[in-house]
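BUG: 3D viewer hangs when loading the predicted structure for this chain

Environment: internal workstation, default settings.
Expected: structure renders.
Actual: progress bar stalls at 90%.

Input used:
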Amino acid sequence: MTIFAQMISGDIPVDFVHEDEYCIVINDINPQAPVHLLVIPKKEIPRLSQSEDTDQAVLGHLMLVAKKIAKEQGLESFRLVINDGVDACQSVYHLHLHILGGRGFSWPPG
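Structure tokens produced before the viewer hung:
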């Protein structure tokens, strides 16, 4: 069971920024920007590349929640990041979106 699954189940106490029937949002414990939140589906999907067509609704929901939370955080612009696999620096194999904001970003990232 991943650390995110333990948070979702209540085994690890955490203050949710947002919770609904499909996902939670938490502050990242190692922020890379002044605002750094994680949008985590309650369904355990290890990697975006391992999602299935039946996950379309939850994946879309994650994007809409990210938009809503970014607005609530006062972000006029922000970056969404999904790391997929070891070479992309995915450290927890439970799909999650990073909402990053509150500073400028450069391109290309990384």
